[in-house]
Task: inverse folding
Protein backbone atom coordinates (compact mmCIF):
# COMPACT_ATOMS: atom_id res chain seq x y z
CA UNK A 1 0.00 0.00 0.00
CA UNK A 2 1.44 3.40 -0.94
CA UNK A 3 1.44 6.20 1.62
CA UNK A 4 -1.47 8.29 0.19
CA UNK A 5 -3.66 5.17 0.27
CA UNK A 6 -2.55 4.46 3.83
CA UNK A 7 -3.85 7.88 4.96
CA UNK A 8 -7.25 7.03 3.46
CA UNK A 9 -7.25 3.62 5.15
CA UNK A 10 -6.39 5.09 8.58
CA UNK A 11 -9.10 7.74 8.60
CA UNK A 12 -11.74 5.31 7.35
CA UNK A 13 -10.83 2.46 9.67
CA UNK A 14 -12.34 3.99 12.81
CA UNK A 15 -9.37 3.23 15.03
CA UNK A 16 -7.30 5.67 17.12
CA UNK A 17 -6.72 9.07 15.50
CA UNK A 18 -3.54 10.12 13.79
CA UNK A 19 -1.43 12.18 16.16
CA UNK A 20 0.05 15.12 14.30
CA UNK A 21 2.93 17.25 15.48
CA UNK A 22 2.77 20.64 17.21
CA UNK A 23 4.16 24.08 16.54
CA UNK A 24 7.20 24.52 14.33
CA UNK A 25 7.52 28.31 14.56
CA UNK A 26 7.31 28.34 18.37
CA UNK A 27 10.23 25.95 18.68
CA UNK A 28 12.29 27.68 16.00
CA UNK A 29 11.83 31.00 17.77
CA UNK A 30 12.73 29.45 21.12
CA UNK A 31 15.99 28.32 19.54
CA UNK A 32 17.00 31.75 18.37
CA UNK A 33 15.25 32.25 15.03
CA UNK A 34 13.58 35.67 14.80
CA UNK A 35 9.92 35.92 13.85
CA UNK A 36 11.08 38.43 11.23
CA UNK A 37 13.01 35.70 9.41
CA UNK A 38 11.51 33.31 6.87
CA UNK A 39 11.09 30.02 8.75
CA UNK A 40 10.54 28.18 5.46
CA UNK A 41 13.96 29.18 4.12
CA UNK A 42 15.53 27.23 6.99
CA UNK A 43 14.86 24.11 4.91
CA UNK A 44 17.79 25.32 2.81
CA UNK A 45 20.02 27.28 5.17
CA UNK A 46 19.62 25.38 8.47
CA UNK A 47 18.06 21.97 7.69
CA UNK A 48 19.58 20.38 10.80
CA UNK A 49 17.49 22.60 13.09
CA UNK A 50 14.27 21.78 11.26
CA UNK A 51 15.15 18.08 11.22
CA UNK A 52 15.81 18.13 14.96
CA UNK A 53 12.31 19.45 15.64
CA UNK A 54 10.72 16.90 13.31
CA UNK A 55 12.57 14.12 15.15
CA UNK A 56 11.48 15.41 18.57
CA UNK A 57 7.84 15.25 17.51
CA UNK A 58 8.25 11.73 16.11
CA UNK A 59 9.91 10.62 19.35
CA UNK A 60 7.00 12.20 21.27
CA UNK A 61 4.54 9.98 19.41
CA UNK A 62 3.49 11.84 16.26
CA UNK A 63 2.25 9.53 13.53
CA UNK A 64 1.98 12.45 11.11
CA UNK A 65 4.37 15.38 10.74
CA UNK A 66 3.86 18.54 8.69
CA UNK A 67 6.48 19.94 6.36
CA UNK A 68 8.09 23.26 7.24
CA UNK A 69 6.31 25.01 4.35
CA UNK A 70 3.46 26.90 6.03
CA UNK A 71 4.43 30.24 4.43
CA UNK A 72 6.20 28.89 1.33
CA UNK A 73 3.88 30.53 -1.18
CA UNK A 74 4.79 33.24 -3.68
CA UNK A 75 3.14 36.12 -1.80
CA UNK A 76 4.74 35.40 1.56
CA UNK A 77 8.15 34.46 0.22
CA UNK A 78 8.19 37.74 -1.72
CA UNK A 79 8.21 39.58 1.62
CA UNK A 80 11.71 38.13 2.12
CA UNK A 81 12.81 38.39 -1.51
CA UNK A 82 12.72 34.58 -1.80
CA UNK A 83 9.89 33.93 -4.27
CA UNK A 84 12.43 32.63 -6.81
CA UNK A 85 13.26 29.84 -4.34
CA UNK A 86 9.66 28.66 -3.97
CA UNK A 87 9.98 25.20 -5.54
CA UNK A 88 13.36 24.61 -3.97
CA UNK A 89 12.10 25.50 -0.48
CA UNK A 90 8.98 23.33 -0.75
CA UNK A 91 10.82 20.32 -2.17
CA UNK A 92 13.54 20.64 0.46
CA UNK A 93 10.87 20.71 3.17
CA UNK A 94 9.43 17.40 1.96
CA UNK A 95 12.79 15.70 1.42
CA UNK A 96 13.97 16.82 4.85
CA UNK A 97 10.88 15.40 6.56
CA UNK A 98 11.24 12.15 4.58
CA UNK A 99 14.85 11.66 5.67
CA UNK A 100 13.89 12.17 9.32
CA UNK A 101 11.05 9.64 9.07
CA UNK A 102 13.30 7.06 7.43
CA UNK A 103 15.95 7.57 10.10
CA UNK A 104 13.39 7.07 12.86
CA UNK A 105 12.32 3.63 11.56
CA UNK A 106 8.75 4.56 12.51
CA UNK A 107 5.49 4.55 10.58
CA UNK A 108 4.90 8.28 10.11
CA UNK A 109 2.95 10.12 7.39
CA UNK A 110 4.20 13.36 5.88
CA UNK A 111 1.64 16.12 5.32
CA UNK A 112 2.49 18.95 2.95
CA UNK A 113 1.69 22.08 4.97
CA UNK A 114 -0.08 24.93 3.15
CA UNK A 115 -0.98 28.11 5.00
CA UNK A 116 -2.95 31.19 3.95
CA UNK A 117 -1.53 33.44 1.23
CA UNK A 118 -1.25 36.46 3.49
CA UNK A 119 -3.32 38.63 1.14
CA UNK A 120 -7.00 39.52 0.92
CA UNK A 121 -9.12 38.04 -1.86
CA UNK A 122 -11.78 40.02 -3.68
CA UNK A 123 -14.33 41.28 -2.79
CA UNK A 124 -12.50 42.06 0.46
CA UNK A 125 -9.11 42.60 -1.12
CA UNK A 126 -7.35 43.20 -4.39
CA UNK A 127 -6.31 39.63 -5.26
CA UNK A 128 -8.67 37.84 -7.61
CA UNK A 129 -9.68 34.21 -6.95
CA UNK A 130 -7.94 32.99 -10.10
CA UNK A 131 -4.68 34.59 -8.93
CA UNK A 132 -5.01 32.82 -5.58
CA UNK A 133 -5.65 29.53 -7.37
CA UNK A 134 -2.47 29.94 -9.42
CA UNK A 135 -0.35 30.72 -6.36
CA UNK A 136 -1.74 27.74 -4.45
CA UNK A 137 -1.19 25.50 -7.47
CA UNK A 138 2.45 26.50 -7.65
CA UNK A 139 3.14 25.50 -4.06
CA UNK A 140 0.96 22.38 -4.05
CA UNK A 141 2.46 20.98 -7.23
CA UNK A 142 5.93 21.38 -5.70
CA UNK A 143 4.87 19.48 -2.58
CA UNK A 144 3.18 16.73 -4.60
CA UNK A 145 6.19 16.29 -6.90
CA UNK A 146 8.43 15.91 -3.85
CA UNK A 147 6.29 13.04 -2.59
CA UNK A 148 4.10 14.12 0.33
CA UNK A 149 1.58 11.56 1.60
CA UNK A 150 -1.26 14.07 2.01
CA UNK A 151 -1.95 17.79 2.10
CA UNK A 152 -3.02 19.94 5.04
CA UNK A 153 -4.47 23.35 4.19
CA UNK A 154 -4.58 25.10 7.55
CA UNK A 155 -5.15 28.30 9.53
CA UNK A 156 -7.55 29.60 6.89
CA UNK A 157 -9.77 32.57 7.75
CA UNK A 158 -11.64 32.97 4.48
CA UNK A 159 -13.76 30.20 2.95
CA UNK A 160 -13.33 31.74 -0.50
CA UNK A 161 -9.55 31.46 -0.18
CA UNK A 162 -9.84 27.90 1.13
CA UNK A 163 -12.04 27.00 -1.86
CA UNK A 164 -9.27 28.08 -4.23
CA UNK A 165 -6.69 26.08 -2.29
CA UNK A 166 -8.89 22.96 -2.42
CA UNK A 167 -9.50 23.44 -6.14
CA UNK A 168 -5.75 23.77 -6.71
CA UNK A 169 -5.07 20.66 -4.62
CA UNK A 170 -7.60 18.57 -6.57
CA UNK A 171 -6.05 19.57 -9.89
CA UNK A 172 -2.35 19.83 -9.01
CA UNK A 173 -2.15 16.85 -6.64
CA UNK A 174 -4.83 14.43 -7.77
CA UNK A 175 -5.09 11.38 -5.52
CA UNK A 176 -3.71 13.01 -2.37
CA UNK A 177 -5.96 13.22 0.68
CA UNK A 178 -6.73 16.70 2.02
CA UNK A 179 -7.19 18.06 5.52
CA UNK A 180 -8.89 21.47 5.31
CA UNK A 181 -8.74 23.45 8.53
CA UNK A 182 -10.11 26.87 9.46
CA UNK A 183 -9.20 29.17 12.34
CA UNK A 184 -11.73 31.10 14.39
CA UNK A 185 -11.81 34.31 16.40
CA UNK A 186 -12.66 34.55 20.09
CA UNK A 187 -16.38 34.72 19.32
CA UNK A 188 -16.20 31.32 17.58
CA UNK A 189 -16.62 32.81 14.12
CA UNK A 190 -14.17 33.05 11.26
CA UNK A 191 -12.67 36.44 10.52
CA UNK A 192 -15.42 36.97 7.93
CA UNK A 193 -18.15 35.91 10.35
CA UNK A 194 -18.86 32.28 9.36
CA UNK A 195 -20.03 29.88 12.08
CA UNK A 196 -18.46 26.44 12.70
CA UNK A 197 -21.66 24.80 11.41
CA UNK A 198 -21.55 26.75 8.14
CA UNK A 199 -17.85 25.98 7.69
CA UNK A 200 -18.42 22.28 8.34
CA UNK A 201 -21.29 22.00 5.85
CA UNK A 202 -19.37 23.95 3.21
CA UNK A 203 -16.20 21.86 3.52
CA UNK A 204 -18.05 18.55 3.52
CA UNK A 205 -19.75 19.61 0.27
CA UNK A 206 -16.28 20.36 -1.17
CA UNK A 207 -15.43 16.68 -0.81
CA UNK A 208 -12.23 16.93 1.26
CA UNK A 209 -11.41 13.89 3.36
CA UNK A 210 -10.97 15.65 6.71
CA UNK A 211 -12.25 19.02 7.91
CA UNK A 212 -11.33 20.79 11.08
CA UNK A 213 -10.10 23.65 13.19
CA UNK A 214 -6.62 24.72 14.18
CA UNK A 215 -4.89 27.67 15.83
CA UNK A 216 -7.73 29.83 17.28
CA UNK A 217 -7.56 29.48 21.08
CA UNK A 218 -6.76 26.64 23.44
CA UNK A 219 -8.31 23.17 23.72
CA UNK A 220 -11.45 24.53 25.41
CA UNK A 221 -12.44 26.73 22.48
CA UNK A 222 -11.44 24.09 19.94
CA UNK A 223 -13.67 21.53 21.67
CA UNK A 224 -16.61 23.94 21.51
CA UNK A 225 -16.07 24.53 17.76
CA UNK A 226 -15.50 20.83 17.09
CA UNK A 227 -18.79 19.95 18.75
CA UNK A 228 -20.65 22.48 16.61
CA UNK A 229 -19.07 21.01 13.49
CA UNK A 230 -19.90 17.46 14.61
CA UNK A 231 -23.50 18.39 15.38
CA UNK A 232 -23.91 20.09 11.99
CA UNK A 233 -22.38 17.20 10.01
CA UNK A 234 -22.16 14.08 12.21
CA UNK A 235 -20.64 11.98 9.42
CA UNK A 236 -17.68 14.33 8.89
CA UNK A 237 -14.16 13.25 9.76
CA UNK A 238 -12.62 16.04 11.83
CA UNK A 239 -9.23 17.32 12.91
CA UNK A 240 -8.40 19.36 16.02
CA UNK A 241 -5.13 21.24 16.50
CA UNK A 242 -5.43 23.89 19.23
CA UNK A 243 -2.99 26.52 20.35
CA UNK A 244 -1.55 26.20 23.82
CA UNK A 245 -4.07 28.81 24.98
CA UNK A 246 -4.24 32.48 24.04
CA UNK A 247 -0.77 34.00 23.75
CA UNK A 248 0.47 36.37 26.44
CA UNK A 249 3.36 38.82 26.33
CA UNK A 250 5.63 38.33 29.34
CA UNK A 251 8.91 40.20 29.64
CA UNK A 252 9.02 40.86 25.91
CA UNK A 253 8.40 37.21 25.04
CA UNK A 254 5.27 35.52 23.69
CA UNK A 255 4.16 32.83 26.16
CA UNK A 256 1.38 30.24 25.93
CA UNK A 257 -0.25 29.20 29.23
CA UNK A 258 -1.76 25.75 28.52
CA UNK A 259 0.44 22.92 29.71
CA UNK A 260 0.86 19.38 28.41
CA UNK A 261 -1.33 17.69 31.04
CA UNK A 262 -4.19 20.05 30.16
CA UNK A 263 -3.96 18.89 26.54
CA UNK A 264 -4.09 15.23 27.55
CA UNK A 265 -7.48 15.82 29.21
CA UNK A 266 -8.94 17.08 25.94
CA UNK A 267 -7.50 14.47 23.57
CA UNK A 268 -10.22 11.93 24.33
CA UNK A 269 -12.93 14.57 24.01
CA UNK A 270 -11.64 15.49 20.55
CA UNK A 271 -11.71 11.83 19.57
CA UNK A 272 -15.22 11.42 20.95
CA UNK A 273 -16.51 14.25 18.76
CA UNK A 274 -15.21 12.79 15.53
CA UNK A 275 -11.55 13.82 15.34
CA UNK A 276 -9.50 11.42 13.23
CA UNK A 277 -6.48 13.73 13.40
CA UNK A 278 -5.33 15.40 16.62
CA UNK A 279 -2.33 17.66 17.05
CA UNK A 280 -1.21 21.08 18.20
CA UNK A 281 -0.66 24.54 16.82
CA UNK A 282 1.00 27.72 18.14
CA UNK A 283 2.73 27.30 21.49
CA UNK A 284 2.54 23.51 21.56
CA UNK A 285 5.65 21.40 22.00
CA UNK A 286 6.68 17.72 21.90
CA UNK A 287 5.56 17.52 25.53
CA UNK A 288 1.98 18.42 24.53
CA UNK A 289 2.04 15.79 21.79
CA UNK A 290 3.44 13.14 24.12
CA UNK A 291 0.68 13.85 26.64
CA UNK A 292 -2.04 13.42 24.00
CA UNK A 293 -0.34 10.29 22.64
CA UNK A 294 -0.36 8.75 26.11
CA UNK A 295 -4.01 9.62 26.65
CA UNK A 296 -5.07 8.07 23.34
CA UNK A 297 -2.91 4.97 23.83
CA UNK A 298 -4.50 4.35 27.25
CA UNK A 299 -7.97 4.17 25.69
CA UNK A 300 -8.43 1.18 23.36
CA UNK A 301 -11.67 2.38 21.79
CA UNK A 302 -13.18 5.71 20.86
CA UNK A 303 -15.26 7.13 23.74
CA UNK A 304 -18.94 7.15 22.79
CA UNK A 305 -20.87 8.27 25.85
CA UNK A 306 -20.98 11.21 28.22
CA UNK A 307 -18.17 10.64 30.67
CA UNK A 308 -17.65 12.58 33.90
CA UNK A 309 -14.35 13.95 32.64
CA UNK A 310 -15.96 15.23 29.46
CA UNK A 311 -18.77 16.86 31.44
CA UNK A 312 -16.17 18.78 33.42
CA UNK A 313 -14.48 19.89 30.22
CA UNK A 314 -17.81 21.13 28.88
CA UNK A 315 -18.33 23.25 31.98
CA UNK A 316 -14.83 24.63 31.62
CA UNK A 317 -15.59 25.35 27.96
CA UNK A 318 -18.70 27.35 28.82
CA UNK A 319 -16.83 29.38 31.42
CA UNK A 320 -13.96 30.03 29.05
CA UNK A 321 -16.36 31.23 26.35
CA UNK A 322 -17.86 33.79 28.75
CA UNK A 323 -14.53 35.19 29.91
CA UNK A 324 -12.60 35.27 26.66
CA UNK A 325 -11.16 38.75 26.11
CA UNK A 326 -12.17 40.67 23.03
CA UNK A 327 -9.87 40.76 20.01
CA UNK A 328 -9.37 44.48 20.65
CA UNK A 329 -8.31 43.77 24.24
CA UNK A 330 -5.98 40.99 23.13
CA UNK A 331 -4.30 43.15 20.51
CA UNK A 332 -3.65 45.87 23.08
CA UNK A 333 -2.36 43.28 25.56
CA UNK A 334 -0.02 41.96 22.87
CA UNK A 335 1.43 45.44 22.37
CA UNK A 336 0.08 45.87 18.84
CA UNK A 337 -0.46 49.35 17.41
CA UNK A 338 -4.19 49.44 16.75
CA UNK A 339 -6.57 51.49 14.63
CA UNK A 340 -10.05 52.40 15.86
CA UNK A 341 -12.40 54.32 13.57
CA UNK A 342 -15.53 56.16 14.67
CA UNK A 343 -18.77 55.76 12.72
CA UNK A 344 -22.08 57.52 13.32
CA UNK A 345 -25.32 55.50 13.32
CA UNK A 346 -27.74 56.32 10.50
CA UNK A 347 -30.54 58.84 10.96
CA UNK A 348 -33.14 56.44 9.53
CA UNK A 349 -33.59 52.72 8.86
CA UNK A 350 -31.12 52.23 6.00
CA UNK A 351 -27.78 50.69 7.01
CA UNK A 352 -26.35 50.00 3.54
CA UNK A 353 -23.91 52.93 3.51
CA UNK A 354 -22.86 52.22 7.08
CA UNK A 355 -22.05 48.57 6.35
CA UNK A 356 -20.26 49.49 3.12
CA UNK A 357 -18.10 51.94 5.07
CA UNK A 358 -17.36 49.36 7.77
CA UNK A 359 -16.36 46.82 5.10
CA UNK A 360 -13.98 49.32 3.54
CA UNK A 361 -12.38 50.08 6.91
CA UNK A 362 -12.06 46.40 7.79
CA UNK A 363 -10.40 45.71 4.44
CA UNK A 364 -7.98 48.59 5.02
CA UNK A 365 -6.86 47.09 8.33
CA UNK A 366 -8.94 48.80 11.02
CA UNK A 367 -8.95 46.78 14.24
CA UNK A 368 -12.23 48.00 15.72
CA UNK A 369 -15.15 50.25 14.73
CA UNK A 370 -16.33 52.75 17.35
CA UNK A 371 -20.04 53.51 17.13
CA UNK A 372 -21.11 56.86 18.56
CA UNK A 373 -24.30 57.32 20.59
CA UNK A 374 -26.42 60.29 19.44
CA UNK A 375 -23.40 62.45 18.52
CA UNK A 376 -24.00 66.17 19.08
CA UNK A 377 -27.26 65.11 20.83
CA UNK A 378 -28.88 64.40 17.47
CA UNK A 379 -31.37 61.59 16.93
CA UNK A 380 -29.76 58.46 15.50
CA UNK A 381 -30.34 54.70 15.44
CA UNK A 382 -29.45 53.02 18.74
CA UNK A 383 -25.72 52.32 18.64
CA UNK A 384 -25.78 48.82 20.16
CA UNK A 385 -28.00 47.70 17.25
CA UNK A 386 -25.47 49.21 14.83
CA UNK A 387 -22.60 47.49 16.66
CA UNK A 388 -24.37 44.15 16.38
CA UNK A 389 -25.07 44.65 12.67
CA UNK A 390 -21.45 45.54 11.92
CA UNK A 391 -20.09 42.58 13.86
CA UNK A 392 -22.49 40.12 12.22
CA UNK A 393 -22.44 41.48 8.69
CA UNK A 394 -18.85 42.67 8.36
CA UNK A 395 -17.00 40.52 10.88
CA UNK A 396 -15.07 43.30 12.61
CA UNK A 397 -15.31 44.05 16.32
CA UNK A 398 -16.96 47.21 17.57
CA UNK A 399 -16.73 49.51 20.56
CA UNK A 400 -20.01 50.88 21.86
CA UNK A 401 -19.93 54.51 22.96
CA UNK A 402 -21.97 54.65 26.15
CA UNK A 403 -22.80 58.12 27.51
CA UNK A 404 -24.15 58.41 31.04
CA UNK A 405 -26.14 61.57 30.26
CA UNK A 406 -29.86 60.93 29.69
CA UNK A 407 -29.83 57.50 31.37
CA UNK A 408 -31.00 56.58 34.85
CA UNK A 409 -29.65 53.54 36.70
CA UNK A 410 -32.35 51.24 35.35
CA UNK A 411 -31.70 52.16 31.73
CA UNK A 412 -27.93 52.09 32.14
CA UNK A 413 -27.95 48.52 33.40
CA UNK A 414 -30.57 47.25 30.97
CA UNK A 415 -28.76 48.75 27.99
CA UNK A 416 -25.46 47.24 29.07
CA UNK A 417 -26.92 43.76 29.44
CA UNK A 418 -28.58 44.07 26.02
CA UNK A 419 -25.30 45.09 24.43
CA UNK A 420 -23.45 42.17 26.02
CA UNK A 421 -26.13 39.71 24.91
CA UNK A 422 -25.65 40.98 21.34
CA UNK A 423 -21.93 40.22 21.55
CA UNK A 424 -20.79 43.83 22.03
CA UNK A 425 -18.17 43.65 24.78
CA UNK A 426 -16.03 46.75 24.14
CA UNK A 427 -17.51 49.85 25.76
CA UNK A 428 -16.30 53.47 25.77
CA UNK A 429 -17.77 55.41 28.68
CA UNK A 430 -18.30 59.17 28.27
CA UNK A 431 -20.50 61.86 29.76
CA UNK A 432 -22.22 62.56 26.44
CA UNK A 433 -23.29 65.75 24.69
CA UNK A 434 -25.90 67.93 26.45
CA UNK A 435 -29.34 67.73 24.85
CA UNK A 436 -29.51 71.53 24.73
CA UNK A 437 -27.21 71.57 21.66
CA UNK A 438 -29.11 68.93 19.70
CA UNK A 439 -32.36 68.16 17.92
CA UNK A 440 -34.42 68.01 21.12
CA UNK A 441 -33.17 70.73 23.48
CA UNK A 442 -36.03 70.14 25.94
CA UNK A 443 -35.33 66.40 26.29
CA UNK A 444 -34.41 64.97 29.69
CA UNK A 445 -30.71 65.52 30.40
CA UNK A 446 -30.37 63.92 33.82
CA UNK A 447 -27.96 61.18 34.81
CA UNK A 448 -27.38 59.03 37.88
CA UNK A 449 -23.73 58.23 37.24
CA UNK A 450 -20.66 60.14 36.11
CA UNK A 451 -18.25 58.23 33.83
CA UNK A 452 -16.01 57.01 36.67
CA UNK A 453 -19.11 55.70 38.48
CA UNK A 454 -20.31 53.84 35.39
CA UNK A 455 -16.86 52.34 34.85
CA UNK A 456 -16.94 51.12 38.46
CA UNK A 457 -20.42 49.64 38.00
CA UNK A 458 -19.24 47.70 34.94
CA UNK A 459 -15.82 46.52 36.10
CA UNK A 460 -16.53 45.98 39.81
CA UNK A 461 -20.18 44.99 39.41
CA UNK A 462 -21.25 43.45 36.12
CA UNK A 463 -17.87 41.85 35.40
CA UNK A 464 -18.03 39.98 38.72
CA UNK A 465 -21.69 39.05 38.30
CA UNK A 466 -23.47 41.73 40.35
CA UNK A 467 -25.73 44.67 39.52
CA UNK A 468 -25.56 48.11 41.14
CA UNK A 469 -27.66 46.90 44.09
CA UNK A 470 -25.37 43.90 44.66
CA UNK A 471 -27.89 41.41 43.24
CA UNK A 472 -26.61 38.37 41.36
CA UNK A 473 -27.11 38.72 37.57
CA UNK A 474 -26.53 35.02 36.90
CA UNK A 475 -23.15 35.13 35.20
CA UNK A 476 -20.51 37.82 34.98
CA UNK A 477 -20.08 39.96 31.91
CA UNK A 478 -16.72 40.44 30.17
CA UNK A 479 -16.77 44.10 29.21
CA UNK A 480 -13.56 45.83 28.15
CA UNK A 481 -14.01 49.45 29.18
CA UNK A 482 -12.48 52.65 27.87
CA UNK A 483 -12.53 56.21 29.14
CA UNK A 484 -11.89 59.65 27.66
CA UNK A 485 -8.93 61.99 28.05
CA UNK A 486 -8.42 65.57 26.88
CA UNK A 487 -4.77 66.10 25.94
CA UNK A 488 -5.18 69.89 25.90
CA UNK A 489 -7.39 70.80 28.88
CA UNK A 490 -7.64 74.24 30.41
CA UNK A 491 -6.71 72.71 33.78
CA UNK A 492 -4.34 69.78 33.33
CA UNK A 493 -4.23 68.90 37.03
CA UNK A 494 -8.01 68.63 37.17
CA UNK A 495 -7.93 66.39 34.07
CA UNK A 496 -5.34 64.18 35.79
CA UNK A 497 -7.50 63.98 38.94
CA UNK A 498 -10.54 62.86 36.94
CA UNK A 499 -8.50 60.36 34.91
CA UNK A 500 -7.12 58.88 38.13
CA UNK A 501 -10.68 58.21 39.36
CA UNK A 502 -11.53 56.48 36.08
CA UNK A 503 -8.44 54.29 36.30
CA UNK A 504 -9.12 53.39 39.93
CA UNK A 505 -12.64 52.41 38.87
CA UNK A 506 -11.17 49.94 36.39
CA UNK A 507 -10.74 51.62 32.99
CA UNK A 508 -8.90 49.36 30.55
CA UNK A 509 -7.98 51.81 27.77
CA UNK A 510 -8.09 55.51 26.92
CA UNK A 511 -9.34 57.39 23.87
CA UNK A 512 -8.29 61.02 23.62
CA UNK A 513 -10.10 63.96 22.12
CA UNK A 514 -8.74 65.16 18.76
CA UNK A 515 -5.28 66.66 18.83
CA UNK A 516 -3.49 68.80 16.25
CA UNK A 517 -0.51 69.81 18.37
CA UNK A 518 1.80 66.82 18.84
CA UNK A 519 4.43 68.75 20.80
CA UNK A 520 1.90 69.88 23.41
CA UNK A 521 0.21 66.48 23.44
CA UNK A 522 3.48 64.63 24.05
CA UNK A 523 4.46 67.00 26.84
CA UNK A 524 1.08 66.65 28.54
CA UNK A 525 1.24 62.87 28.19
CA UNK A 526 4.63 62.94 29.91
CA UNK A 527 3.19 64.98 32.78
CA UNK A 528 0.14 62.70 33.05
CA UNK A 529 2.26 59.57 33.12
CA UNK A 530 4.61 61.03 35.72
CA UNK A 531 1.66 62.08 37.88
CA UNK A 532 0.03 58.65 37.65
CA UNK A 533 3.20 56.64 38.25
CA UNK A 534 3.78 55.47 34.70
CA UNK A 535 0.21 55.05 33.44
CA UNK A 536 0.53 51.74 31.60
CA UNK A 537 -3.06 51.72 30.28
CA UNK A 538 -3.08 51.79 26.45
CA UNK A 539 -3.79 55.22 24.96
CA UNK A 540 -5.28 55.77 21.50
CA UNK A 541 -4.78 59.31 20.26
CA UNK A 542 -7.79 61.01 18.71
CA UNK A 543 -7.19 62.11 15.11
CA UNK A 544 -9.86 64.06 13.22
CA UNK A 545 -8.70 64.58 9.62
CA UNK A 546 -9.53 68.07 8.39
CA UNK A 547 -11.81 67.96 5.37
CA UNK A 548 -11.54 71.56 4.15
CA UNK A 549 -10.64 75.11 5.13
CA UNK A 550 -14.20 75.74 6.29
CA UNK A 551 -14.12 72.56 8.38
CA UNK A 552 -10.88 73.65 10.06
CA UNK A 553 -12.31 77.11 10.79
CA UNK A 554 -15.49 75.61 12.23
CA UNK A 555 -13.58 73.31 14.58
CA UNK A 556 -11.27 76.13 15.64
CA UNK A 557 -14.00 78.68 16.38
CA UNK A 558 -17.04 76.66 17.41
CA UNK A 559 -16.10 73.31 18.96
CA UNK A 560 -15.00 73.52 22.61
CA UNK A 561 -11.84 71.63 23.50
CA UNK A 562 -10.36 71.49 19.98
CA UNK A 563 -7.23 73.57 19.51
CA UNK A 564 -5.74 73.92 16.03
CA UNK A 565 -2.35 75.64 15.74
CA UNK A 566 -2.15 78.71 13.53
CA UNK A 567 0.36 76.95 11.27
CA UNK A 568 -2.17 74.22 10.38
CA UNK A 569 -4.90 76.79 9.78
CA UNK A 570 -2.58 78.62 7.40
CA UNK A 571 -1.80 75.35 5.61
CA UNK A 572 -5.50 74.64 5.14
CA UNK A 573 -6.16 78.22 4.00
CA UNK A 574 -3.48 77.87 1.33
CA UNK A 575 -5.35 75.05 -0.43
CA UNK A 576 -7.95 75.47 -3.13
CA UNK A 577 -10.09 72.42 -3.86
CA UNK A 578 -8.02 69.66 -2.28
CA UNK A 579 -8.38 70.35 1.42
CA UNK A 580 -9.23 66.74 2.16
CA UNK A 581 -5.93 65.48 0.80
CA UNK A 582 -4.00 68.04 2.81
CA UNK A 583 -6.03 67.15 5.90
CA UNK A 584 -5.11 63.50 5.38
CA UNK A 585 -1.43 64.40 5.00
CA UNK A 586 -1.54 66.42 8.23
CA UNK A 587 -3.24 63.51 10.03
CA UNK A 588 -0.56 61.06 8.89
CA UNK A 589 2.19 63.41 10.08
CA UNK A 590 0.44 63.79 13.46
CA UNK A 591 0.24 60.02 13.89
CA UNK A 592 3.90 59.57 13.00
CA UNK A 593 4.96 62.15 15.59
CA UNK A 594 2.70 60.76 18.32
CA UNK A 595 3.35 57.09 17.64
CA UNK A 596 6.24 56.55 20.10
CA UNK A 597 4.01 57.64 23.01
CA UNK A 598 0.73 55.92 22.12
CA UNK A 599 -0.53 52.43 21.33
CA UNK A 600 -3.00 53.28 18.66
CA UNK A 601 -5.08 55.81 16.80
CA UNK A 602 -8.73 56.74 17.21
CA UNK A 603 -9.75 58.12 13.81
CA UNK A 604 -12.85 60.33 13.56
CA UNK A 605 -13.47 60.86 9.83
CA UNK A 606 -15.60 63.95 9.19
CA UNK A 607 -18.64 63.81 6.89
CA UNK A 608 -18.41 60.00 6.67
CA UNK A 609 -15.17 60.17 4.65
CA UNK A 610 -14.29 56.58 5.46
CA UNK A 611 -12.15 56.42 2.32
CA UNK A 612 -9.84 58.99 3.91
CA UNK A 613 -9.64 56.95 7.11
CA UNK A 614 -8.91 53.80 5.10
CA UNK A 615 -6.09 55.50 3.20
CA UNK A 616 -4.58 56.81 6.45
CA UNK A 617 -4.59 53.30 7.94
CA UNK A 618 -3.02 51.74 4.86
CA UNK A 619 -0.35 54.45 4.69
CA UNK A 620 0.64 54.10 8.36
CA UNK A 621 0.68 50.30 8.16
CA UNK A 622 2.95 50.49 5.11
CA UNK A 623 5.54 52.67 6.89
Result:
Amino acid sequence: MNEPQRFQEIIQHGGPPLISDGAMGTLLNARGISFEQSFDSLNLINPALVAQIHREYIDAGSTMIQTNTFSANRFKLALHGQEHLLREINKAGVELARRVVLASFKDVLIAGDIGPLGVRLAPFGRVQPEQAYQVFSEQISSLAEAGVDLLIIETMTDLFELDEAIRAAREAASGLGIIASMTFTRDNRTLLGDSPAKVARHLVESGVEVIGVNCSGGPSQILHILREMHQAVPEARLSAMPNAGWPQQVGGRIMYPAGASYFSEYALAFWQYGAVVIGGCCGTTPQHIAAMRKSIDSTPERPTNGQDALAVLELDDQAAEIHQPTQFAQKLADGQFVFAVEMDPPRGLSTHKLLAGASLLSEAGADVIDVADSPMARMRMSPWAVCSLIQRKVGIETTLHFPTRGRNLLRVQGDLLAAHALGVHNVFVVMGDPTAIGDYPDAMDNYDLVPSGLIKLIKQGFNVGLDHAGTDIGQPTSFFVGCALNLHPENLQNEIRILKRKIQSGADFILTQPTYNPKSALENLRIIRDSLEGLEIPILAGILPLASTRHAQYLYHEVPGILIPEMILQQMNSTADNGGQLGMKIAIELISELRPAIQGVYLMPAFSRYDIAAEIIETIKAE
